[in-house]
Amino acid sequence: MKIDLEHINRAFESKARLGIMSILSVNESADFTTIKNLLGLTDGNLASHARSLEEAGYIESRKQFVGRKPNTRFVITPAGREAFAIHLKALEDFLKNRPL
């Protein structure tokens, strides 16, 4: 039996990116600090992975001020939601159909 890995999206291979997409797929949005704390990432690490996902068109960042403090929130785009759903389905199919 040949296993089809065509729909596994390389953009989500990193556990950090997989985590970011997972958080954003079940929440309307999430701020930088929340994602950083949930995933145990450094500021630079989260910024780097978020930038990659933004460049792919999978998430958007929205910068604002809360009081006098800058706040960055992330949201998943429709393209990101679709790509992530396809990726998860491909992973599920792989796990269900893999030879033992």
Automatic annotation (TrEMBL):
Database matches in InterPro entries: WH-like_DNA-bd_sf, WH_DNA-bd_dom, WH_DNA-bd_sf
Top-rank taxon, per record: Bacteria
Residues of the Winged helix DNA-binding domain: 17-94
Any coiled-coil regions, as ranges: none
Tell me which PANTHER family the record gives.
Answer: BSL7504 PROTEIN
Protein name from the UniProt record: Transcriptional regulator
Source organism per entry reads Coprobacter tertius
